[in-house]
Amino acid sequence: MVRELVATDFWMLLEGLKWTALLSIIAFAGGGVVGLIIALMRTSTFSIPRTIAYLYIEVFQGTPLLMQLFVVYYGVALVGLDVNAWVAAAIGLTAHSSAFLGEIWRGGIEAVPSGQTEASRALGLTYVHRMFDVVLPQAFRISLPATVGFLVGLIKGTSLVAIIGFTELTRAGQIISNNTFQPLLVFGLVGAMYFALCWPLSLLSDRLEKRMAFGR
């Protein structure tokens, strides 16, 4: 029987929005740390780390995110580990984002003029100082628009964790829709919340991209 939305329904959607934002932050931060390592391996002068990083990126970019979540959530049980939906969602999204951020930042590193690296090497700077004091600050600035753009996609991608039972915004919408029999209204509100979360970031990405183009 159709019923009207009540205050508890809106509260549940807001709770789902909170978990969507928190999951996005965790996945982006964890993916950023691993992605930086992947980017450094991809630009290494040694073939073994380059190959490992290349295969890592190919696996996570070449397979659906939904399949990766299934593998983490159901696959780890085969080796005797028991993870809940929250941990599985965080691990799956972190691995997914690290592959994409690693490739984005690899492009940024390679876009830094080679003269910068040669000059820092001539000054006697070690590899760590060359990368973290000279190359990476410029690389992150170059890749910032693409990084923000990926964050927008990551936020929307968190909706897939509803499949493994994690109650974020989309899952909360499914539960409320099943209780109220008003899917158009409920998912209209869900879509509006995603839009409110992603639109400012999309504007920021466009503005950064234009600023970078003007700077070049």
UniProtKB/TrEMBL annotation:
Gene Ontology CC terms: ATP-binding cassette (ABC) transporter complex
Chief site of localization: membrane
Transmembrane residue ranges: 20-41, 139-164, 184-204
Residue intervals of the ABC transmembrane type-1 domain: 17-205
SUPFAM superfamilies: MetI-like (SSF161098)
Keyword Transmembrane helix: yes
Molecular function GO terms recorded: transmembrane transporter activity
UniProt keyword list: Cell membrane, Membrane, Transmembrane, Transmembrane helix, Transport
Membrane-related topology note: Multi-pass membrane protein
Pfam families the UniProt entry points to: BPD_transp_1
Any GO BP annotation: amino acid transport
Keyword Cell membrane: yes
Subcellular location: Cell inner membrane; Cell membrane
InterPro entries xref list: AA_ABC_transptr_permease_3TM, ArtM/GltK/GlnP/TcyL/YhdX-like, MetI-like, MetI-like_sf
Family, per entry: Belongs to the binding-protein-dependent transport system permease family. HisMQ subfamily.
NCBIfam families on file: HEQRo_perm_3TM
Record-given protein name: Polar amino acid transport system permease protein
Originating species: Sinorhizobium americanum
